[in-house]
Amino acid sequence: MNDSFHQGKQQHWPQAATVEDFRRNLDAVRDRIAAACLRAGRDPRSVRLLAVSKTVPEERIRLAYAAGCRELGENKVQEAGRKWEAMQDLVDLRWSVIGHLQTNKARLVARFAAEFQALDSLRVAEALDRRLQAEGRGLDVFVQVNTSDEASKFGLAPQETPAFLAALPAFSSLRVRGLMTLALFSADIARVRACFVLLREWRDRLRQDLPAGASLDELSMGMSGDYEAAIEEGATVVRVGQAIFGARSLPDNYYWPEHAGASVTSATDKEEP
């Protein structure tokens, strides 16, 4: 069992309050990414670090930017939109929406997001495509797959993914880049790792019959407590929040409700690195 996984799960991540704090945290995460790549025989440049800034106020995001952070992931569209509006002076800041999306929020995503990592509905695909065409923009998308078979998570069942991918070329503004998953929330690294392995295996299977224009080069998997295992299993994007910004004030069970359908708010809150 990987000790670093347990250290990541159990440690208290201190709040980053200065540019130097953010530099130190970013360097530490990048060092661990490099070490995981070395163990897996991979080039560290093959892994993209997506800093998840959910609940982080603008002033602290600006500190992270000054420390070198240029890509941010947000779960809630309205929160992300407010931050985007407030920080348009940071012209090279790239925003990814990584949480569940309702069709009535597609217009906002089409305005500012460079990437949407939680596509699991043709209704959402249609709404995004319509809004993107009105904006004259395209959008990179990842298809979300539920590899843990938990009712508390959004995402397609793996066996539903081929038909879903086959339908996406109808939406010309969406550029399919890869797959995303949320692993089992567990201290048992073997069970967590199995989710990453499953996503990679399905990606390899799906590559054999991809529709024209689609690519599955990217695998977005792994968060603050398990991104090293995800990299060892093929992640090309890791979504890291607390290890960069510091621990959130709310306990883990706030972000991981028992039932995704309990409320829209709690369901989106669960998807937090």
Describe the structure.
- With 273 residues, the chain is α/β, with parallel strands linked by helices.
- The chain has a single domain (3-193, 215-269), classed as Alanine racemase (TIM Barrel, Alpha-Beta Barrel), CATH 3.20.20.
- It has twelve helices and eight strands.
- It has helices at residues 3-10, 19-40, 58-66, 77-86, 106-112, 122-135, 161-167, 189-206, 227-232, 242-245, 252-255, 264-269; strands at 48-52, 71-74, 94-97, 115-119, 139-144, 174-180, 218-220, 237-240.
- Strands 7-6-5-4-3-2-1-8 form an eight-stranded parallel β-sheet.
- Strand 4, helix 6 (122-135) and strand 5 form a beta-alpha-beta unit.
- Helix 5 (106-112) crosses helix 6 (122-135).
- The longest helix is centred in the N-terminal third of the chain and has 22 residues, at 19-40.
- It starts with a helix and ends with a helix.
- The model is unreliable at 1-10 and 252-272 (pLDDT under 50).
Topology (SSEs and partners):
Layout: H1 3-10, H2 19-40, E1 48-52, H3 58-66, E2 71-74, H4 77-86, E3 94-97, H5 106-112, E4 115-119, H6 122-135, E5 139-144, H7 161-167, E6 174-180, H8 189-206, E7 218-220, H9 227-232, E8 237-240, H10 242-245, H11 252-255, H12 264-269
Parallel strand pairs: 1-2, 1-8, 2-3, 3-4, 4-5, 5-6, 6-7
Helix pairs in contact: 5-6
